[in-house]
């Protein structure tokens, strides 16, 4: 089958959101607000299209013209590895303009296009491994909202609700600046203790801590988590320091998971494994430059008998989980007592990751990535396009 890429375009449109970001960028529940979202479209010469949600800023006109269109236009859309590597090599001379995120959105749209042309879900193209995956409930960061996530008791109450909804595991994000008093390892440990107390000994629990603790703060908190029988400990320090993570992992029995935000894709992650800096690998379709490099990271971890846990939700991450056996959970969130994660935004007909009564998310049977966009709504609400 032939595929020649005719165009790459971005649509920015009005939609609704029910979250706000604090001064440090953390997401909290908010009132219904008008917001903007974007979709990138890769169009084949025969009219077939592939889509990915994207950041309009990452794929701004300069980036599309200068890099993406130069690489993709006229090329065979099925040659994803070739196209990914050409974009990757253009990054070096781009002065930071062509980001991993940008390449990741294009890569996901190419996978979506291939799946739609072949009428197969992407997770099956990648090597299907399962039809559903259990979800862990991933909380928003702590806040100072009454009845929200203000106190350890709030976390405990919310954890009980999450278990009642079917989640088989829970991950906490605790208090981070600008919340007064944060960050504080003792506050984090108190929230973790309240959740363990609330759900009992058998529910796997995880902590994604403040990311800028010192070594001794991170060690102290890790020892507290061990006492509480937590399942993993995530990103308590700056990830650029691999030796700090080796120092931490050597002293703890609780698995240290990482890296999540460190640049360098598969190369960095190979260094983490060979350095003994982590016990569980972290990977994500949006963090590591798309599905094409993410699947390499998953297979790298597998070769070291290591789990690779997928960071974040969405169709690309779900596709990865459908194609692997060495990762346990889908990260569903971020969740909060005052936020309805299941509410469908108007630019979609349905969400890609509904939770069933047993706490599983099913892999979509739709061709491509499985996103169910409402293009009538999108096209009626365009604010910019290029
Ligand atoms: Mg994280």
Question: Can you describe this structure?
Answer:
This protein has twelve helices and 15 strands. With 386 residues, it is of the alpha/beta class. The chain has two domains: 126 residues, Enolase-like, N-terminal domain (Enolase-like, domain 1), CATH 3.30.390.10; 239 residues, TIM Barrel, CATH 3.20.20. Strands 4, 5, 6, 7, 8, 9, 10, 11 and 13 form a nine-stranded mixed β-sheet that branches. β6, α7 and β7 form a beta-alpha-beta unit. α1 packs across α2, α2 runs antiparallel to α3 and α9 runs parallel beside α10. The longest helix has 19 residues. It starts with a strand and ends with a strand. It binds magnesium ion. The site of magnesium ion has 5 residues, from loops.
Task: Give the helices and strands, then pairings.
Elements: E1 5-21, E2 27-44, E3 49-54, H1 61-72, H2 80-92, H3 100-118, H4 122-125, E4 132-139, H5 152-165, E5 169-173, H6 185-199, E6 205-208, H7 215-227, E7 232-234, H8 242-251, E8 256-258, H9 265-275, E9 280-283, H10 291-303, E10 308-310, H11 315-322, E11 330-335, E12 348-350, E13 360-362, E14 372-373, H12 375-380, E15 382-385
Parallel strand pairs: 4-5, 4-11, 5-6, 6-7, 7-8, 8-9, 9-10
Antiparallel strand pairs: 1-2, 1-15, 2-3, 4-13, 12-14
Helix pairs in contact: 1-2, 2-3, 5-6, 6-7, 9-10
